[in-house]
Amino acid sequence: MPPFSRRDFLKCSASLLAVASVSTLLTGCSSIVNSAELSSVMFSHGVASGDATQDAIILWTRAQPTNAALTEVRVAWQLARDAAFTDIVRSGYVTSSAARDFTVKIDVQQLTADQRYFYRFIGANSESSIGRTRTLAARGNTAVKLAVFSCSNYPAGYFNVYREAAKQADLDAVIHLGDYLYEYAADGYATEHAAALGRTLAADNATETVSLQDYRKRYALYRSDSALQQLHAAVPWYLVWDDHEITNDTWHSGAQNHQPETEGDFFVRRTAAVQAYYEWLPIRPPLGEDSMQIYRSFTFGDLLSLHLLDTRLIARDQQLAYKNYTDSATGDFAAAQFQADITAERHLLGQAQLSWLTMQLSQSQAKWQLLGQQVLMAKMHIPAELLAVRDLKQVPARLQQLVAAKQRVLQAQQQGESPEASDLARLNQRMPYNLDAWDGYPREREQLYATAKALNKPLVVLAGDTHNAWHSVLTDQQGSQVGVEFATPSVSSPGMEKYLNIAPEQASALAQAFSMLITDLQWCNLHQRGFMQITVSHEQVACDWRFIDTVLSDTYQVVAQHQAIFQG
Fold it and tell me: pLDDT tens-digit profile of 417-467?
């Protein structure tokens, strides 16, 4: 076969855009690549695909030049129906540069629905690993299996749960609900085991991430992880950010972990964080990479619609804090003012996003409506006295006291007797425990519930953020159930076992105590790392939580599982 010339290539290559290469409907492209057209690069950060639809897929890699003086590189890419690349359906050249941190994103379009594909990238003298991906079905699918993750902290431990999920041969896609990385410095949150594990931050990235280069280097570190690379290469991902991709407890105009005096303008930092996020992840922002709009929907045939939401950057009003309602001298709590503020019109999604979601729900013909979002939506109201405990290590003992009070009340009611007034007072005075979650924005939550109820479309809500696993029913202010919430544990970030100093043998009893005291909570796990596997059929949505025994060694075992089923 004669050499594959530049002119021949251009006849069957994709058009090149500034950010991504968008392929046209071309088939039968040659598998021969002219290495003279390519740059010498390293594909050290693996490959990834994401935001698959019925006819399009984002492909990603990073083509780092072997010559550090180069500011621009050119690589080839191929998409095939087989792993041997004998049946290539799309191919092309793409250029990247230091302006994009040498990341490459290609939006391959006009593909066949429900088709498995293989892809790779090629440099002058190197090839990337081979990735596997798949377009969504247009109709007729009988089941979809999704793995759900959040809160992956590199210094905190190994990403064993990513490796475990990559073993699932029948997995269709990954949903990542945020905190893909953490912004903290080398001596910050959850870094106490980093040196022993060999998972320290790089010397030139050891401070908190603030600038564009800071965020880029942090992504580069995370994407060097072999388990993360393995799962990215296995299936397409659907991602949304939470707060740590920017900084802790972000809201629309600031964050708890941003100090303007030393870290500069918050909006400059946010812009840098969003740019790095778009560069490093296989995401297709609906309005392009100049926009922060990340909420978007995907339809898996007639089985489910996945609506990915933003509860952080676009519209979130600043979180309320109990300390701002407590008199430091007397300890008195300004209950009336707190009640007025928390029930006021405060936004988490914002009106534009809520209107968009209403339209998506109303137009969807799918059996199930999945909301992929960051924070717990269910009411997590706990006895108010727990919020007054200053030493968190004392919380387990106080919980057991409250459980005993609940048991006395239930026993009295079963015997037709009046419970002790003191027990009822302790149990009935409740407050939301996490004002960063939907509990801090109850008015907008009720608007969403009313919409779902009016459309007769029960919600299946997926959440992350807390590092622990939760199964709750979703009830509106009238007590009607409008759906269910499944919340995933963290990949590696420590959970409540650390904050409350819980020994493993205490964890089960403590989880049962929470389930007994929180009305809508059905089950929880407060001490293990893991992920959720969601299996969707026309009959039900099944959630399987899978937990591993350690993140402090790359040798691990799956040690626990739990299943919950929702049938609408």
Answer: 999 999 999 999 999 999 999 999 999 999 999 999 999 999 999 999 999
DSSP 8-state symbol, 255: E
Which residues are CB-neighbours of 79 under 8 A, at least 6 positions away? 23, 57, 59, 88, 89, 90, 91, 108, 117, 118, 119
Strand (E) positions, 414-529? Answer: 430-432, 459-463, 469-475, 481-487, 521-525
Distances (CA, A) of 398 to 191, 225, 432: 30, 41, 17
Distances in Å between the Cα of 163 and the Cα atoms of 15, 493, 516, 531, 554 are 35, 16, 34, 11, 10
Q: Are 225 and 159 in contact (CB under 8 A)?
A: yes
Q: Are strands 64-65 and 254-255 parallel, antiparallel or unpaired?
A: unpaired
Dist CA 501 CA 76 (whole Å) = 52
- Please report, in angstroms and rounded to a whole number, the separation of the first and last CA atoms in the chain: 59
Q: Mind listing the pLDDT tens digit for each residue in 191-224?
A: 999 999 999 999 999 999 999 999 999 999 999 9
Task: Tell me the two tokens of residue 319.
Answer: 């979180």
Judge if pTM exceeds 0.85: yes
pLDDT at 101: 98
Residues 378, 470: Cα–Cα separation, whole Å: 10
Q: How confident is the model at residue 32 (pLDDT cuts 50, 70, 90)?
A: confident
- Integer Cα distance of 547 and 13 in angstroms: 45
What is the pLDDT at residue 7? 37
* Element at 270 (helix H, strand E): helix 266-280
Q: What is the 3-state secondary structure (H, E, C) of 291-321?
A: CCCCCEEEEECCCEEEEECCCCCCCCCCCCC
